[in-house]
Amino acid sequence: MNESTKSSKEGLPGESTRLISNDSGDTPPDKEVYLHFDLNAGVAGDMLLAALIDSGVPREPVDEALAAIGFKEKAFSLERVNKGSVSSLHLTISSEAEATGIACKTYSEGREVIQRSDLNQILKERATQTLLSLAQAEAAVHGTSVNEIHFHEVSGADTLIDIVGVLAAVMWLNPIKVSASPVCVGGGVVETRHGSLPVPAPATILLLKHIPIVGGQDHKHELATPTGASIIKNLTHQFGNLPAMHVNGIGYGAGTIDLKGKPNVVRALWGTAFPSHSDQDNRDNSKDGSIEEPLVEMRANIDDMSPELTGHLCEEFLKMGALDTWITPIIMKKGRPGTEIAVLLKDSDMAAFIEKFFSESTSFGVRWNPVHRRRILRKNEQIETQWGMIDVMVGYLDGKMMTVSPEYESCKRIAREFGIPLKKVYRETSAAWVAKQCPPKF
């Protein structure tokens, strides 16, 4: 960490599995949650984590995740401080955590710590990807490979604590969307082991490529760290203004230095989606516990685009929070074979998706139609199988179970671990669930 050291639906956005157990008595939000970060004073991993805890995320799931990677004692302490008259939490890595000897000087060392841990597989993959992004940026800047780069500016403890801690806190919140303001990167020059570097540092600005940033020439400090930038890059669906929502949690994570003219804090806000009148009427009129919601279906017909680019576009849509996306082969004018790319989204996200269509595809036009969707309530549960616990998604209508679907990532992990066909895991997981609900009568 440097001077700017700063102190929350599919587990992470895109997952629907809650990945960290919680024995504190606190319960995660049971409604669809939006999470937003104000990054007007920059971003660092410890600031993000402190802000999430200050907003109401309990420490227990965070400590549990950190214990799973080897930090058996409290890995960090929190202190209430004032930054620009704003009461906030400042996070400090404990001496016990530093003394564990857990290494993250290279990507391979950090990856090994994560992969050999007891973390849920999805959390392992997300943490590994965040660390990989950091390594790729550092390697590109220094003209070497990911496996050869050394993280000179970070210690063995703080990088892993920041990444795993933030992801665990976000998974407790289980948001359907994570957004953030443009990132303030600071200005001036920072001294490193590689000598004097401009702010933002080369690795940081590379990580923030294609992400909106603002300078801070009045603040001659490094306000965005590489670790913080990598977390935000891999966590956030979209950047911009605070989305419409009923705010339930507000938290401030403090940096170490004092900035002139504004508090050196990251602010985390989370709450439930703020429905339109028609959406509220649809929810209120639902007598069976299902939810009807207005959505937008957006499409474009394309006949001159590489399949690799098409697949990439669909991946980008999902990262942005698309509810679904699909590709349909079609025959276009003059008998040309083409592709229809479609995406299902919330109407409030239209502008961002239209821009993504034009920036990532060869289309000169995009069309859309309002649609309505009714969906049943979903609940994440687990079932005991001969191979251990497996995650399942259960659908309920009017309090009655209607469908159950084994979670792909959980089943894939079991299939790989035991060397068995994935379809066998699916089949026997479904059978175990049915047997649990309808035990045989003797």
Please give a structural write-up.
The chain is an alpha+beta fold and 442 residues long. Helix 1 crosses helix 8 (226-235) and helix 5 packs across helix 8 (226-235). It has a five-stranded mixed beta sheet. It has a four-stranded antiparallel beta sheet with strand order 13-14-12-15. The chain has a three-stranded antiparallel beta sheet with strand order 16-17-18. It contains 13 helices and 18 strands. The protein is 33% helix and 28% strand. It has three domains: 33-273, no CATH class; 289-375, Alpha-Beta Plaits, CATH 3.30.70; 377-437, Roll (Ubiquitin-like (UB roll)), CATH 3.10.20.300. It has helices at residues 45-54, 59-68, 95-98, 107-115, 121-142, 156-173, 202-207, 226-235, 277-284, 307-319, 350-360, 408-418, 422-437; strands spanning 33-38, 76-83, 86-93, 177-180, 183-184, 189-192, 195-198, 213-214, 238-239, 245-254, 265-273, 291-302, 324-331, 337-345, 367-375, 377-385, 388-397, 400-406.
